[in-house]
Amino acid sequence: METAKNRHGLTVLAGPTAVGKGTVSTYIRDHYPHVRLSISATTRAPRPGEEDGVHYFFVTPGRFDELVASGQMLEWAVVHGKNRYGTLRSTVEQAVSDGKAVLLEIDLQGARQVREQMPEANFVFLAPPSWEEMVGRLVGRGTETTDEQQRRLETAKLELAAESEFDHTVINDNVPRAAAELVSLMGLTPTTHP
């Protein structure tokens, strides 16, 4: 296994839609309390069970524009041609300067922006075990319309082609195993979780 690029700094996790980035991140939040997850801001509506300030900062398009215009976003992007997502610069920079291991779960566009601004970060691509598995996950979660699912699958094809831009690849074939591998790539000991 490759060693992590940095220890106790920023790790960027990206991958195609429906690969399970949110599931792996939630598992890490619940089982690895020494990892700080960065919470993204988004203009999309909450999905069932999502809470403001826990899963995302849900903001209006106008407020999002203000954050971008004032330089408060480390990265931001329009995802699937519809909603905007972004990361508040201050929360990431403060946690890293405090010596925390920070995990930033974002899309490919955002990962590219972070690489421009923080090239020292550790970039990890979360990949599905297969295309068929990823399609099954997207359709199975039932949170998007058929048109939205098709749009996301078209985006996923482009996202999968970007794997070589990342420092490491983790296959999400089993959430606890993938989470442990990711935590190890962050320079932490995965066995310290409860």
SSE layout and pairing:
Layout: E1 10-14, H1 21-31, E2 35-37, E3 41-42, E4 57-58, H2 61-69, E5 73-79, E6 83-88, H3 89-97, E7 101-105, H4 108-117, E8 122-127, H5 131-141, H6 146-160, E9 168-171, H7 175-185
Parallel strand pairs: 1-7, 1-8, 2-7, 3-4, 8-9
Antiparallel strand pairs: 3-6, 5-6
Helix pairs in contact: 1-7
What does it look like?
Residues about 1-5 have low confidence and may be disordered. The chain is about 40% helix and about 20% strand. The protein has helices spanning about 20-30, 60-70, 90-95, 110-115, 130-140, 145-160, 175-185; strands at about 10-15, 35, 40, 55-60, 75-80, 85-90, 100-105, 120-125, 170. It is an alpha/beta fold.
Summarize the amount of helix as a percent range. Answer: 25-40%
| Distance separating the two termini | 23 Å
* Structural shape: globular
Residue stretches low in confidence (pLDDT < 50, at least 5 long) are 1-6
Q: What is the count of structural domains?
A: 1
What is the CATH C level class, in words?
A: Alpha Beta
Strand content: 15-25%
The CATH topology turns out to be: Rossmann fold
- Which structural class matches the secondary elements? alpha/beta
Assembly type of the chains comes to single chain
CATH architectural designation: 3-Layer(aba) Sandwich
Outline of this structure?
By secondary structure, the chain is an alpha/beta fold.
